Predict the structure.
Amino acid sequence: MPETHHKVTRAAGINSAATGVCRVLGYVRDAVVAYAFGTTWVSSAFTVAYAIPNTFRRLFGEGAMASSFVPLFAEELHHNGREQAFALANVVLTLLASFLTALSVAVAAACLVLAWVLPVPARVHLTFLLTCVTIPYVVLICVTALLSAMLNTLGHFTRPALAPVYLNLSMIAGALVGVRFIAPPMERQIYALAIAVIVGGALQLYLQVPELRRRGFRFTPRFDWRHPFVRRVLTLMGPALIGAGASQINILIDRFMAMGLNDRGAAVLTNADRLVELPLGMFGIALATAVLPTMSFFAAKNDHKGIVVALGFALRHIMFIMAPAALGLILIGEPLVRLLFERGRFDAASTYYTSRALYMYAPGLIGFSLAKIIVPTFYARKDTKTPVRVGICVLALNVILNYTLMQFMEERGLALSSSICAYVNVIVLMVILRRQCGPLGLREVFASCVRIALLTVLMGVTVWVAGTWMSQVTAADTLMGRMVRVIVPLTCGMAVYLTVAYATGVREMHDLLAAFVRRRH
């Protein structure tokens, strides 16, 4: 079993490093977009328009398709070899691309008609038109997701994790072209950013092809809806699509309700969510991506103990990383937003509203991350119905909380609702998994959580003291002052957290350090 831990940690490390590069570049993208468009109604319109194809990315890239395809593809590799597995992948790939192309055309046509028929506010009208431009991204990114799932199952994680670099670079170029070379108003300039989304999607797809070809895969269109493998994928994917869709519909509901609140709402939530996604993408999704193939191979061999051990390993390590990250975002939220975004059209008011939303999102970071680990455990066991039922119930709860909290907290209430629902989702899933599988080794996980909580409190005190001192000796109106107010408290907090963890022999710290040393060698 230690060898399994090494493989998961190594894969997660590769994912985290590559994803870290993408997330840092993603910050540059978000900063450039914020500089160009701020939290204006134009920015909110693009946010909602981009959220629609991005929802499909999360469904197929991090949700139903990958979670349904990976266990079956791993099973084919284990029992019948690569040639047969690649042939079946061609069938799924052909049908997926065909279906999503037809869907994209239908959505674009519907949005175009609605934009010119309905008497809607300007921001809604612009949202319809921008959706027509961005919707082809659905086909590009979902095909990319399937190819990435194949590479992950084959043990290659770097190219799939680096693919977002191309999207980020393309969107950075699009925002700069829009604001520098296209004459105002902003509602005209924003189209350059929408077109850049399509260019980035095409580049992401192109990146996956050479590595798959080196491993023997050749794409050959095969239309066979009735193939048994397709039926098995669809059988798993249907419930998983609904379950993952419930989570993504939550996000869309948040954005639409925020747009209905005021001009800034959707853009404010998106910018705050980006900061939460930085640690979530670097570690939560990376570890989930690494552990799913491992669990799938255990499931294919009916190794229940292996699944339980892999789950406990992932839970402990995700808590070790995410607990201090969540507290850090709460303690330095406003200085961080000011440093990263406040320039150009992103003014002091934008910083104020974004940081307030971040304070509501940050506590949910642990819940968001744990869900990324727990849900794939069900998928690896080919149980896609349970997350569906729970997801639908959480969706209903989110709508109720949204409507209640937004009455007196505006967009902050929508962020708080998301955090509450994340923990409800995790708790219910863990209870069900315990009933289905028996003991999950949670005593060991709980003991680790207690140690991690104590370390996190110590780190929080350090960050608070350092942050208070820095705010008294530095000015917030200079770039250097802003950097010092963020970097010094974070550095002090991380140094205390990691040093004490190492000195007291915290297991997760030594696991991650050992994985880093092995990677260097």
